[in-house]
Amino acid sequence: MKPRHIAVIDIGKTNAKVALVDTEHFEEIAVVTRANRVLEGPPWPHFDLEGHWAFILYALKAFHADHGIDAISTTTHGASAVLLDQNGDLGAPMLDYEHHGPDSLREEYDALRPAFSETGSPRLGMGLNLGAQLHWIFATQPDLKARTATILTYPQYWGYRLTGQIASDVSSLGCHTDLWDPYKRHYSSLPETLGIREKMAPPRPATDCLGTVLPAIAKATGLSASTPVFVGIHDSNASLLPHLMDSTPPFSVVSTGTWVIAMAVGGEQKDLDAAKDTLINVNAYGAPVPSARFMGGREYEIAMQGQKITPTNEDIRAVLDKGICLLPALQNDSGPFMSRTTKWIGGEPAIDSGVRAAALSLYLAMVTAHCLEMIGHRGTIIAEGPFTKNRLYLDMLATATDSEVHACKASTGTSIGAAMLAVDGNPDIPASTYHHPRQDLSAYARLWWDLVARQDDGP
């Protein structure tokens, strides 16, 4: 029987959540969240896995009592792995991928990592390449490699806690880790180079059933001991999955949140530029997907400093009439404009103003459009996540790409997509709003591109 209620463990970089998805209409009927705060250490900044675990068990128990849970799925941010010791316990805290520690061994790691042509994985700073994390961790903790029995990707850690079964999933391994060859669909040469190949958890399709919940989990939550837990998936690929099931190529999906990730399906063949944070993602079925990304949600937070303002039509008109432009990049250690210094043209609006919110929305749409152009976008654009509430962003994205944009009304694409791992057949995609190119935004788009080109040329 088709499971009716699927609990989804959904850990993003900013927030952790557990959502209960009703598969009759694929909508969230219950959601709880907590901040995904980083603990300072020792031995390094790391995520609060035990805090998340207590939160997850609480949510599963409450959801099952109120609605019943028929299956569990998991989805998390990428660039993360968990080390288990011989007893199956945590071998070391899970490093925050924004820690700069791995940069201290950058030259040494660069001499070891495979070429972009093998992995489709660009060289990124901090711990954004999982291979760089593992190299740095084992180099700076000399006894840790010997104590590590298993390395598994992050969604499957929660599956392991629930079922006791070990796996990694191909979408997480394909998330700029340097550890995966997306073309041959197996581990790259790097795990062998690092001396960890035998420790890597076996890769499994995200759609597989990992196992059923352990007796102790059933007792703690009230769940049936036969409740299935699915392998799980990297979050941006969770957003992509419903559309792979429902749409006909060519199309592109833009997953928004802390990261804005653009993924082209059936688009124009392009040579990707590793220096601009383009990459090959791996979808739930193991196939390569040309992708590009930037930290759009983080840039919004930086620019607005916690303010949440919806610009008025007068705010938008002021930005267009005065040519107020924000140039990249507010977060310049990733994305297509790495190492650029951000600049306001036409004057910097006040932080608490609708004018600033309008200019920022246009900026985010233009950077997203550039990401899509780099990966060969063709067809419709399907937008997921928090930015779907930003009409100006969606209208400018349609204008800058000369494409129709469908904005999914579901509150997040990741939980819905992860729930679909447990369901056979085509999904009933939640209704969308439709956005088309606007003539009044075209001149601004041309102005922004011209200013970025001048930025390329220098002073």
Enumerate the spans where pLDDT stays under 50 for 5 or more consecutive residues. none
Q: Which sheet architecture does the biggest sheet show?
A: 7 strands, mixed
Query: What is the distance, rounded to the nearest whole angstrom, between the alpha carbons of the first and last residues?
Result: 65 Å
Mean pLDDT reading: 94
Helix fraction bin: 25-40%
**Rg, Å, rounded:** 22 Å
What is the SS-derived class? alpha+beta
Shape: globular
Beta percentage is 15-25%
Across the major sheet, the strand order is 18-19-17-16-22-23-24
* Strand elements, count: 24
- Count every helix, treating DSSP H or I runs of 4 or more residues as helices: 16
